[in-house]
Design a protein that fits this description.
about 220 residues, Pnp Oxidase, Chain A
């Protein structure tokens, strides 16, 4: 399997002017481990870019390999055609961890983990595209690629894979209970955190699934998370 060229990993990156967290800066994180952990926990990102003077935001699946964020799409898609031309882009991933209920309306909040990355996407060449698509499939369910048919020539040609360097990325995280003002602590209202968890439920087999094909072990593992 061909390897995908990678940027050298950096333990910590100094934030750029646009990637530095400005609102509540103590929630900002710039080390690779934190940024990577948030990205690896998610599946959908939102990509913002400008096309013909119009701001556009597109949700899409993504995956991470090394210090790159990868996306794929049809060679005819509006987003892929714009990004491959090197337009400036901004990518956001947000994971909700809970609703924070305070004693005052002003201090209600959410616990979350998020990443924002800036830069320009680059096209993954055909020599490395199949390895990237395999990595995407294996992120969804480790072991899946070996069981399925890979892209044929037509599908391979119709699919574009792009990647964005994570050299200009930051994470922002909020954890913990509400932060009420001292004068509000005596208000007789419930305060605390309502945790929010996402996870996969019981798999639903295709109605046309052939008899005797058992549920793969990797899907059983995913539903136990």
């Amino acid at each position: 399997m061909p390897t995908i060229p990678r940027l050298p990993s950096a333990k910590s990156a100094a934030p750029s002017t646009r990637s530095r967290v400005k609102r509540v800066p103590d929630r900002g994180h710039y080390d690779r481990e934190t940024v990577h952990a948030v990205l690896d926990a998610g599946h959908v990102c939102h990509i913002a870019f400008s096309q013909d003077g119009q701001p556009v935001v597109i949700p899409t699946a993504y995956w991470r390999e090394g210090d790159y964020l990868y996306v794929h799409g049809s060679t005819k898609s509006r987003m892929a055609m714009a990004l491959v031309r090197g337009v400036p882009a901004c990518v956001a991933v947000t994971l909700l961890d809970g609703l924070v209920f305070a004693r005052s309306a002003f201090h209600h909040s959410m616990n979350y983990r998020s990443v924002v990355a800036f830069g320009q996407f680059e096209l993954v060449p055909d020599a490395h595209k199949m390895a990237a698509l395999e990595a995407f499939t294996e992120k969804l369910a480790p072991g899946r690629w070996a069981e399925i048919r890979g892209p044929n020539k037509q599908e391979f040609k119709a699919t574009m894979v792009l990647r964005l360097s994570l050299n200009e990325a930051s994470a922002k995280i909020r954890r913990g209970p509400p932060k009420d003002d001292a004068e509000d602590m005596a208000i007789p209202a419930w305060a605390g955190v309502l945790p929010f968890r996402t996870g996969f439920e019981k798999p639903e087999p295709d109605p046309q699934l052939a008899a005797g094909i058992a549920l793969p072990g990797y899907l059983k593992t995913l539903t136990r998370r």
